[in-house]
């Protein structure tokens, strides 16, 4: 008999947690380590305590909710995701995976079931990387790939540091927690793309997550008065950016399965009657094929130098983050497919174009992910939505995968 989660309770929990940073346009703005993130973290603590979980917070603010199994010496099973959101994010990105983990704990409690293995549900700090760059800070630190002091020193646009903000919201743990070796890790997440909806498939099973390359670019021109300065006597940093932005898009478009995007642009002084003297902008390049992705990176870097010269400006190119792709565990991928099938759900192999905390956890723990459709393929936007029915279906698959591995 396939156990199922409680769909009404899952919907209620997701609705209530979405109020933390909720916007009047139906989205969520819960940037990492803000008051909204703190309040949501506090609520998660209350709910997981009701589910009977022990709670540990490590020195980078990762929250581990532990439901003890019968055999404490066995390597545990992990699931979880992130509570922080984009500035104008959606109600499901990240938090769905944590709340589904909570619902599984409630479901096991209600059924009087204790797994053989510990079950650990995690809230990973600063997955989005929007306020503090890079992203997946908590999971990257846990995996030993990001240096804690460097992460503590990261600053947001107002000059506040990650370490100070962690302290301020009361989530800077005193010691780390390392349950490794772990038996398996599953991350349940919305697809954030159009494939499942277009194909009419209920469950997505990524074979892995693409590699990512993030840049900060500084373009230096000469600020001047827009009126008296002749067009052929300008060193306009915004014009240089315009040339660069178009080329970056074109190089991504021409490449084979690589995406290249500019997300942030900050001109200085950003005044309508001043020729911009400086532009800071960001580039995000990703692809499953690392050679092709790095070829595009080289093309982009070469273009930035060429186009800066064309516009009479200087350019500084800083690669601020790169993480290799994460190929998931074949046997856990098969387990997710078979669990979906046992529940009467169709499933599809795919690649995750979005990054997730599992990109780091996968480094030393066999991992797999479970996707459910995003309506209209939209995410990282307030319109982000997944039907309650699909939220429950994905949670049921996670429950099945956790029970199978938790009792194996
Ligand atoms: O950027 C990403 O792919 C993730 O959603 N933060
Ligand atoms: Mn996410
Ligand atoms: Mn996201
Ligand atoms: Mn004037």
TrEMBL record:
Q: Where does Zn(2+) 1 bind?
A: 82, 93, 189
Q: What cofactor does this chain's UniProt record say it requires?
A: Zn(2+)
Q: Which Pfam families match?
A: M20_dimer (PF07687), Peptidase_M20 (PF01546)
Alphabetized InterPro entries for the sequence: Amidase_Cbmase, Bact_exopeptidase_dim_dom, Peptidase_M20, Peptidase_M20_dimer
Every copy of the Peptidase M20 dimerisation domain together lies at: 213-309
The highest taxon in the source lineage is Bacteria
Cofactor comment: Binds 2 Zn(2+) ions per subunit.
Q: Where does Zn(2+) 2 bind?
A: 93, 128, 380
> What would you give as a GO molecular function for this chain, any one?
hydrolase activity, acting on carbon-nitrogen (but not peptide) bonds, in linear amidines
Q: Which UniProt keywords apply?
A: Hydrolase, Metal-binding, Zinc
Cited NCBIfam families: hydantase, PRK09290.1-3, PRK09290.1-5
The entry's family comment says: Belongs to the peptidase M20 family.
Protein name stated in the entry: N-carbamoyl-L-amino-acid hydrolase
**Species of the source:** Desulfopila aestuarii DSM 18488
């Amino acid at each position: 008999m396939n156990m199922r989660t409680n769909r009404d309770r899952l919907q209620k929990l997701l609705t209530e947690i979405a109020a933390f940073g909720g916007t009047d346009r139906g989205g969520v703005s819960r940037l990492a380590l803000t008051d909204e993130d703190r309040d949501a973290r506090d609520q998660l603590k209350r709910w997981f305590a009701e589910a009977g979980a022990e709670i540990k917070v490590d020195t980078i603010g990762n929250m581990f909710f532990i439901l003890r199994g019968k055999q404490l010496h066995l390597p545990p099973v992990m699931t979880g995701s992130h509570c922080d959101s984009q500035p104008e994010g959606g109600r499901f990105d990240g938090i769905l995976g944590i709340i589904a983990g909570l619902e599984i704990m409630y479901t096991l409690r209600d059924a009087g079931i204790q797994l053989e293995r510990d079950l650990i549900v995690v809230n990973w700090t600063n997955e989005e990387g929007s306020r503090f760059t890079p992203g997946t800070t908590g999971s990257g630190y846990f995996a030993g790939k990001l240096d804690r002091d460097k992460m503590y020193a990261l600053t947001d646009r107002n000059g506040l540091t990650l370490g100070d903000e962690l302290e301020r919201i009361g989530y800077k743990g005193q010691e780390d927690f390392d349950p490794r070796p772990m038996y398996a890790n599953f991350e349940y997440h919305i697809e954030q793309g159009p494939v499942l909806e277009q194909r009419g498939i209920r469950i997505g099973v990524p074979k892995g997550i693409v590699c990512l390359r993030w840049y900060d670019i500084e373009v230096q021109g000469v600020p001047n008065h827009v009126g008296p300065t002749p067009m052929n006597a300008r060193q306009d940093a915004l014009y240089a950016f315009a040339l660069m932005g178009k080329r970056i898009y074109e190089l991504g478009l021409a490449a084979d399965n690589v995406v290249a995007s500019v997300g942030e642009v900050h001109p200085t002084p950003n005044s309508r009657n001043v020729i911009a003297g400086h532009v800071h902008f960001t580039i995000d390049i990703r692809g499953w094929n690392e050679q092709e992705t790095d070829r595009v990176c080289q093309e982009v870097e070469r273009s930035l130098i060429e186009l800066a010269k064309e516009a009479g400006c200087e350019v500084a190119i800083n690669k601020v983050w790169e993480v290799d792709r994460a190929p998931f565990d074949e046997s856990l991928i098969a387990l997710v497919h078979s669990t979906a099938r046992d529940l009467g759900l169709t499933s599809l192999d795919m690649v995750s174009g979005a990054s997730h905390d599992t990109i780091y956890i996968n480094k030393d723990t066999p991992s797999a992910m479970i996707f459910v459709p995003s309506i209209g393929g939209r995410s990282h936007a307030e319109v982000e939505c997944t039907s309650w029915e699909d939220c429950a279906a994905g949670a049921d698959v996670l429950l099945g995968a956790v029970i199978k591995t938790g009792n194996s």
